[in-house]
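Example record for the data management plan.
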Amino acid sequence: MGRIDPERLDATTEADLARQATADEAEARQEVAKLVLRVRKRLGLKQAEFAARIELLLETIRNWEQGRRYPTGAAKSLLKVLKKAPELALAALH
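Corresponding structural encoding:
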């Protein structure tokens, strides 16, 4: 663990915090984008095929893979299951 620099902490503005939050969110979207792409490629599916298999809109998959949006709730859980046991997860869906 690093030490806290009180001067730097005091100099941190709300704008600095907002910029960091925006950067963190962008990084999180890119990480999820990579995950979605890896899962889909591992299954050997095109975007449209993947969307159909997990019963989502093609646009949703595109948005996830391009980092414009990211899955939440049940969709996020489904991706975790698909990452660990893709064939089993797909079989359970149909």
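Summary line stored alongside the record: The domain at 6-93 is CATH 1.10.260.40 (434 Repressor (Amino-terminal Domain)).
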